[in-house]
Specification:
By secondary structure, this protein is α/β, with parallel strands linked by helices. The protein has eleven helices and eight strands.
């Protein structure tokens, strides 16, 4: 990446891109559906990335990348990695059909969902990636539905590789892209990327919040190979987790929660963690 992108201070999405490209290297082409990164990249004809980038429609991340991959193959350029880079809205909602179709065909590209848990670029509207209890402009009290489990949906397609990652753990994130680059077929990486304006959090706390989400077991880091083999990276199951309340209290988007709601979130986090442990390769 070049300097001079137009991301907000503390933006997790900009750091996520920088780390991902460190793992993938220069022989990479980006497919970019509508999202915050459509703006972060810069106004035409400028781009903050040092690699070719195709801006495409909101719903076409999976299909556009499939086409780019096919074109490169026809040209004999099989050593170039194609990566779609989309937000949670463009992945879990608007782009899910194209992503599912590409995954079912096992198209040979990487799909990244950088997850800031709402439609941030268009005014902080709720997405299916927004967690239960969060404030958005379209859920002014709190969101009443749970966060969609996109990893379970992707794993059900039995693709070669899927993983969660976080900007708070850069070595883990870069290593997963290096691993994904060497695998043929559809690969999916789900990155936790805080958004200070949308989360009503301090820009200087983005990395702290991303780390707390892992430490609270709310966003564990793990890998799924061929939809079957689960490997936990972080946190260590033997380490005592931090209470989810400590994570929630640092974000204004959860200001409407009472103690009962916080306890319910903690219960759901504990259940989801146990479900993940049950899937681990023993």
């Amino acid at each position: 990446m070049y300097s001079g992108h137009v991301a907000c201070p503390g933006c997790g999405a900009s750091l996520a891109m920088r780390l991902a490209l460190k793992g993938l290297g220069k022989k990479t082409m980006l497919v970019l559906p509508a999202c915050c990164w459509s703006i972060i990249d810069g106004p035409f004809p400028y781009s903050s990335t040092k690699i070719p980038l195709l801006h495409t429609a909101f719903e076409t991340g999976g299909s556009a990348a499939s086409g780019v991959r096919a074109a490169l193959d026809v040209l004999g350029k099989k050593d170039i990695t194609v990566m779609t880079w989309a937000g949670d809205g463009g992945t879990m909602d608007i782009g899910l059909q194209a992503l599912s179709g590409a995954a079912e065909r096992n198209e040979n590209f990487i799909y990244t969902c950088y997850d800031n848990e709402a439609y941030m670029n268009t005014g902080i509207q709720r997405s299916s990636g927004t967690p239960w209890g969060a404030w958005t402009t379209t859920t002014p009290n709190k969101k009443e539905q749970p966060k969609k489990d996109i990893m379970a949906i992707i794993a059900a397609h039995k693709i070669p590789y899927a993983a969660t990652a976080s900007v708070a753990y850069p070595d883990d994130l870069i290593a997963k892209y290096k691993k994904a680059r060497k695998i043929k077929g559809t690969r999916f990486i789900h990155i936790f990327a805080p958004c200070p304006p949308g989360w009503k959090s301090l820009p200087e706390e983005s990395i702290k919040l991303a780390r707390m989400a892992v430490q609270a077991r709310s966003f564990p880091l793990y890998e799924v190979e061929n939809g079957m083999k689960y490997t936990l990276n972080r946190p260590n199951p033997n380490e005592k987790p931090i209470p989810i309340k400590e994570y929630l209290q640092r974000q204004g988007r959860f200001r409407n929660l009472n103690d009962q709601s916080t306890k319910l979130i903690q219960k759901n986090v504990d259940q989801n963690w146990q479900n993940l442990l049950n899937k681990l390769d023993k």
